[in-house]
Each structure stands twice: as C-alpha cells, then as structure tokens.
Amino acid sequence: MESEEIIKIFESFVKKDNETFYKIAHEIIEDEKRKKHYLLVKKLENILLESHESSNLNHIEQIPIIPRDNEKGFKLFEVKKIFLDWNDVILSKDAKETLNQIIEELKNEDVLESYGLKAKQKILFYGPPGTGKTLTAKVMSSVIGYPLVTIRFDSVISSYLGETASNLRKIFDFIEKGKWVVLFDEFDIIGKQRDDPTEHGEIKRVVNNFMLMLENYEGDSVIIASTNHQHLLDVGVWRRFDDVVYFDLPDEKRRKKIFEKFLRVLKKDKNLNLTKLAKDTEGFSGADIEQVCIDALKKAILKKEEFVNYNNVQESVSKQRNKMNAKEVVKHE
Predict the structure, then answer these.
(1) 141 and which of 70, 148, 195, 205 could share a cystine (Cβ 3.0–4.6 Å)?
(2) What is the pTM of this model?
(3) 47: part of which helix (H) or strand (E)?
C-alpha cells in the first residue's frame, strides 16, 4: 500500500467519509488480487461485508418506515447498500453494452432532460435461471450509487381480496420518495398473463394495477423486474418497460472466465485444464459453475491440499450435471 493511500484511508475514517474509505478499500483489494493474494482478498472482502451489513442498519434507520403487509405484518421489501462492480458478474457482450448504455443515461440524465429526453428507468431482465440477473441488479445498484430495494413477494402476495394491489401501491408510494434501485425478482408472480385460465380474477386485477402503476411512475428510482419465465408474462407488461435485457447461458469463453473467477481461492494444479472444463460444461449456467467450484474447493481444503486439481473439479462437474438432469426429469413429470 502506498503511503498516500494510507493517509487518505485514515483521513476518510476520521472524517466519516464512507465513499472515499470504500473506494480506497476496493482499490487495495484489487491490488491484492493482481498479486494473487486470494486468501487476504477474501478476508478483506468479508470485513467490508460485515461493515456493510452494519451500515445498512444505520441507513435503514434514516429512511422512511418500510411499509408492511396488513395480513401478516411482514415488511414488503428489504433495503441494502451494495458494494460490487462489473468484475463481479460475467455477462455477454450484448447484455453488458445495453447495461452500460443504461448506466450512462442515468449518470447524464440532466443532460438528456435538457434535450427533452428521459433516461431509461424501467428495465426487464429475462433468461434462464442462474445467469446473473439478480447479481447484475446488485452491481447496477452499486455502480449507480442507489441503495437496493428488494421486493419480498412472500409478503406482497396476500390472500385478502384487494390487499396485494394495496401492497404494490405502498411500494410505489415509497420508492417515489427517494432514489433507489428496485428489484422485483421472480417478477412473473405478478406479471402473469391476464387470460391465463388457471388464475382467478384477483390476479388479473393485480396485473392490471401493476401495469398502471409502472406506466404512471414518475419518480427517480430505477425499477428492474427479473424473470426466468418470460413466456408467462402478459404481453401488456412488456410495453411498460423502457428496455429489456436477455441473460443467456454462458458460452465457452465466459464459462472459462467463471471457472477462473471462482477457483482463484486456491492455487491451480498444473493438470487443471480450464479450457477443457469450459468445453465439458456446455449448458451450465454461471450459478451451476459456481456450485461446481465451491464443491471442488471444499474437497481440496478439507483434504488439506494446497492445489485444486482437475479430477476434483471434474467430479464436481459430474455431480452438478446429475442434479441438473434430475431437475429436468421433475420438470417434465
């Protein structure tokens, strides 16, 4: 660490300048990553994570009271301050270009408004499970600098007539009072087709109400809806979004990068061929590969091995593939 960085990090602590403190802290972590000091990196990241959890509590005390569901009394959403960057998620070129464009618009919304234009604020993420939709929403929250509001659908959906729509209204009333990144994860729960014969009239009313709220929203928050089941969405819902981003399964090049990302905790044995592993995992999502890496790392660590080797990772690949196949069998039964 340079002496100038030491001075700045001490000054930021004394002045309670969290933004500068975290900026320097992340620079230090990136420097340690380049030196391949991965265990130190993990410890530093965990320290920051604990600090973030504490700061989140302080932040929540300062914001308006989070509304609750009248039926169960649960909070309708959670609020957190996120500290991530684009290095934390591996996306396709098309997806990243679209997201960078959205970020640029939001950062320059005053310039756009001077020309009578409005930055994109309502975004739909769709694609297979485990492809980085939720993680990307968190990264966007961090990059934009807005706290993340994650909607809890277990609280929003109510058995009381009209209560679900009322809960949605509470959410929109809240987010209009500040600047947030608002994540409606598993969005298809409330964005279902209105002509779905398996659904009752209450769901149809909820979908209508949600579309009206989304269309009429004029606040400063960024709204992100995420779904793994885009075929379930009502056609009218799609038109309410300013942009849509498709998250596909990673290609071979991205699969290799994901292996590199998650296996960097330990040194890699010379027989560990990441190119072959990337080829062998066609059809795997990023989340699938993450699970493979975690499983292989645990095996190596518990055996007190200093290296992660190809056989351990390949065993974990086979194990994960069996789980994936079992899910497919259940899905089609």
Answers:
(1) 148
(2) 0.78
(3) helix 38-62
Structure-model confidence comparison of residues 331 and 243, the more confident one: 243
CB atoms within 10 A of CB 4: 9
C-alpha angle with apex 186: 184 to 191, nearest 5 degrees?
Answer: 80
Residue 104 near residue 81 (C-beta atoms within 8 A): no
* Dihedral sign of CA atoms 43, 45, 48, 52 in order: negative
CA separation, residue 311 to residues 6, 297, 316, 333 (Å): 43, 12, 9, 33
pLDDT above 70 covers a percentage of the chain that reads: 86
Q: What whole-number distance in Å separates Cα of residue 216 and Cα of residue 103?
A: 22
Measure the CA–CA gap between 152 and 75, rounded to whole angstroms.
8
pLDDT, residue 183, reads: 96
Q: Output the CA torsion sign for 148, 152, 157, 163.
A: negative
Under 8 Å between Cβ of 172 and 77: no
